[in-house]
């Protein structure tokens, strides 16, 4: 579904107050008017002082933000909406420190908002399954300690990467941080992100051989100078990911890495509709179940 594009000034004009934000959520959640989540009744009393609707049939009280990403949040909706705009509109992403200054909240609050949004991004993309010709490889990401390069490098987190190869362009992408590249983790990654019996290209790493159980895979032990011919898109994706992490976050620790992978993939998978991302992300926040902080 095509979503409207959003400029800074349009967003500012559209979501200028708490009432503007509440009315937008109401319109998106109940396009045909209120509907009780418990009994489906379409009639309610509006308790304006508490911003609640009480069903006239079963008397369940429902807030406009109940069962959305905003559920139970004490952060003003205007700040949420602006966080969504800043995160969605900048393809280089935004750090919690920068967001905290832009929407005037402390770092911890900004970090929480971004964490919830990135978790929702990951859930949204987990609905897709990659198909066709798929390239799979692993990468080592992050780490703040200096140490040896390559496999087993100190403080780095392994990431499994899969990309649809569409010839002269890449299709959809999936990435998952793992504690190590082993049969179990590879098998779970493939089951979660790939349609079965696809043509999969990979290098000669033995841990990836488990792919053979559900896919038509071909492995090649590839010298470094030929790797871009056999796995071109997966290596471009890994290079772009590392630039993304270094550019905005100056590296990242393993604890939060999956959230950044979620954002990178969400953005990559919508690169043809870049200007729609703020509205897509806002819509996702409205239809997504609450995400509990951790």
Automatic annotation (TrEMBL):
InterPro entries: Tnp_ISXO2-like, Transposase_Zn_ribbon. Residues 129-269 form the ISXO2-like transposase domain. This is DDE transposase. It comes from Shewanella glacialipiscicola. The lineage of its organism: Bacteria, Pseudomonadati, Pseudomonadota, Gammaproteobacteria, Alteromonadales.
């Amino acid at each position: 579904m095509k979503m409207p594009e959003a400029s800074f000034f349009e967003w500012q004009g559209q979501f200028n107050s708490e009432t503007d934000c509440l009315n937008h959520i109401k319109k998106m959640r109940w396009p045909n008017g209120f509907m009780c989540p418990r009994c489906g009744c379409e009639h309610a009393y509006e308790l304006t002082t508490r911003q609640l609707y009480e069903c006239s049939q079963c008397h369940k009280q429902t807030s406009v933000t109940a069962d959305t990403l905003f559920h139970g949040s004490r952060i003003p909706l205007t700040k949420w909406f602006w966080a969504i705009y800043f995160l969605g509109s900048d393809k280089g992403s935004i750090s919690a420190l920068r967001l905290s200054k832009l929407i005037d909240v402390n770092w911890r609050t900004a970090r929480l908002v971004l964490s919830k949004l990135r978790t929702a991004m990951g859930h949204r993309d987990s609905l897709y399954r990659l198909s066709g010709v798929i390239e799979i490889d692993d990468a080592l990401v992050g780490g703040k300690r200096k140490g040896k390069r390559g496999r087993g490098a100190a403080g780095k987190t392994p990431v499994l990467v899969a990309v649809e190869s569409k010839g002269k362009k890449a299709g959809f992408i999936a990435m998952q941080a793992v504690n190590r590249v082993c049969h179990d983790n590879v098998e779970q990654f493939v089951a979660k992100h790939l349609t079965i019996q696809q043509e999969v290209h990979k290098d000669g790493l033995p841990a990836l051989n488990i792919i053979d159980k559900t896919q038509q895979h071909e492995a090649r032990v590839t010298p470094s100078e030929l790797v871009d011919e056999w796995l071109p898109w997966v290596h471009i994706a890994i290079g772009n990911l590392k630039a993304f992490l270094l550019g905005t976050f100056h590296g990242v620790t393993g604890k939060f890495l999956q959230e950044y992978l979620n954002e990178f993939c969400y953005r990559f998978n919508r690169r043809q509709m870049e200007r729609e991302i703020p509205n897509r992300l806002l819509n996702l926040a409205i239809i997504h179940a609450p995400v509990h902080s951790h």
